[in-house]
Design goal:
Length: 365
């Protein structure tokens, strides 16, 4: 293989499809101040700011700065985008004749904005404050009657994403680390995605590299503006590839475990990533070389584990609240309707992977 991108199969070394996201990205410190100008460009004057309750004060400040162009703040976004929250928000949107949505927050608030945009086709301005990456994916996950479903539609993509690294300075260090590793997970799986292309692979490598550089700096000084800038830059790249290519075993395990045991999103990704990486590195070591390089290790999975330990990240599913009796049912569910994966999945090896993650043991590589 020449470059780890595609095998020569008589059709040339490169053989791929590429679709870029239509969303406009504005990146840089202070870019939140461009919101008012963006409303003018979109011809909107009745905006509604969405946030979680925890970020209501910051969202209020944004609404204040927008003056008459903003009708107020709807601060009821919660994890996993429950449909009943969306329905209640839709009532406000309709009765107040909202003409633009502004999602200010992490993946939960992005979810609410995307859910309303999907139903109304209203323009959406996304102002992310974590590294989750939802703002640049056409995927909307929603929960109804305890069931989580996901749909893919370009209607949920924002018209504009304002990436302002200053807004991430308030993200507590532990959440910065787990949210950053959540973003790295998108990049890792994009590197071996079945439908990867040269652009997605470049973006994934660069995103993983940027986050691997930034997170140790944040541990030293959590409001370091350059490290915040670098981390958000990496998060954008990793989020963008999450939106472009298919995810594999790692994301399947996280969706399964998160759904079955109501585990926290970013922390679950953080615990599983070294194990899923080590598992797949046995099959596609060349494709995962950028991950080892990023964390300065010969073995990407073990390297990620040791690096995460140095950052003080969680390593055990037990500590996140999973019961030990859940290991076998989780194995069964992870193997039912599996996502495509570069390495064949077998019950014993997946059970061993989940067990190692449960106890917080390092992956065998
Ligand atoms: P989150 O949005 O739930 O945020 C966690 C908490 O941190 C919230 O209370 C939030 O208000 C607070 N917070 C966020 N930014 C902050 C900041 N800068 N300062 C202080 N507090 C801040 O967590 P998340 O990890 O960003 O998102 C998780 C959700 O996003 C999950 O539901 C997940 O399924 C979804 N998600 C979806 C996609 C997609 O493509 N559809 C991608 C990634 C994540």
């Amino acid at each position: 293989m020449l470059s780890g991108i595609a095998k020569g199969d008589g059709m040339g070394v490169h053989h791929f499809e590429f679709t870029g996201s239509p969303a406009r990205i504005v990146f840089g410190r202070g870019s939140m101040s461009r919101t008012s100008e963006a409303l003018d460009t979109l011809n909107c004057s009745r905006a509604l700011v969405l946030s979680t309750d925890a970020q209501k004060d910051s969202a209020d400040n944004l609404a204040c700065a927008l003056g008459k162009k903003c009708l107020g703040v709807y601060a009821k976004a919660v994890m996993h985008t429950p449909v009943e929250v969306t329905v209640a928000a839709m009532e406000v949107v309709e009765t107040q004749r909202v003409d633009c949505l502004i999602s200010f927050g992490g993946g939960s608030t992005m979810g609410l904005g995307k859910a309303i945009a999907y139903r109304t086709d209203l323009p959406l301005i996304a102002i992310p404050t974590t590294y989750a990456g939802s703002e640049v994916t056409p995927v909307l996950g929603q929960t109804e009657n305890g069931q989580k479903t996901a749909l893919r539609s370009s209607r949920v993509l924002p018209e504009l994403v304002l990436y302002d690294p200053d807004l991430t300075a308030s993200l507590p260090l532990s959440m910065s680390v787990t949210s950053g590793i959540n973003a790295i997970a998108h990049g890792v799986e994009a590197l071996y995605a079945k439908d990867r292309n040269p652009i997605s692979s470049m973006m994934a490598s660069e995103g993983v590299r940027a986050l691997a550089e930034a997170l140790p700096e944040l541990v030293k000084r959590s409001n370091d503006p350059d490290a915040r800038d670098q981390a958000l830059y990496g998060a954008w790249l990793c989020g963008a590839v999450l939106g472009q290519v298919g995810m594999a075993l790692h994301h399947k395990l996280c969706h399964t475990l998160g759904g079955m045991f109501d585990l926290p999103h970013a922390e679950t990704h953080t615990v599983i990533l070294p194990h899923a990486t080590a598992f797949n590195a046995a099959e596609v070591p060349d494709l995962l070389r950028p991950v080892g390089d990023a964390v300065g290790a010969a073995h990407p999975g073990r390297g990620l584990y040791d690096w995460a330990v140095r950052l003080g990240a969680p390593t055990s599913l037990r500590d996140l609240g999973m019961p030990e009796t859940g290991i076998k049912p989780a194995t069964k569910q992870a193997l039912a309707n599996p996502y495509w994966n570069p390495r064949r999945l077998e019950r014993d090896s997946i059970e061993a992977l989940i067990r190692a993650a449960y106890y917080g043991n390092p992956p065998q590589e």
